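Posted in: Structural Biology > Protein-Ligand Complexes

Title: Requesting predicted complex, heme C in pocket

I'd be grateful if someone could produce the 3D structure tokens for the following input. Sequence and ligand are given below.
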Amino acid sequence: MVGMKLRTILLAGLSLTAILSWGQAPASAPDAAKIARGKYLAEEVAKCQDCHTPKTEKGDFIKSQWMKGSTLDFTPAAPMMGWHSKSPDITSTSALWPRWNVDGMVKFLETGKNPRGNKAGPPMPTYTLNHDDADAIVAYLKSLP
Ligand code: HEC
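-- Reply #1 --
Done. Output follows.
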């Protein structure tokens, strides 16, 4: 009898664990791989942080403000039409997401054009990435706090 009870408790415990871990929905393996690839492309190849992360006076990145938008620490050699001295927040807290959605952001990195059909002002580069690269970068940006 005691054995029976113990088994019931164990089984109940197991299914509870299953429910709990299912509820947490950890990033699935393909998502984690996509985000890691996006991080590599954004940070090592395109270097988005050079313009989108604020720096200390010594020029070190302020890690807690990673990709949160910044005042650029450089200006064009000659005055340039439409030059932007500030870059926007491009993390998950960016005001762009509700307006652009994930699709709009992916298309922006694929075509260089925002949902209104305009290019961003200089010095924001005009990217024409392939779909998988754009999609990975967007997944990475969305994963940033
Ligand atoms: C050389 C500096 C620089 C780099 C590198 C850079 N950006 Fe920007 N970015 C800017 C500036 C400046 C703006 C503001 C331009 C504007 O509002 O038109 C901007 C604007 C944007 C916008 C908003 C565009 C709009 O039309 O409102 C997005 C989204 C963006 N950047 C994403 C990225 C991503 C993703 C990367 C890396 C893959 C990146 N940027 C790399 C400087 C840069």
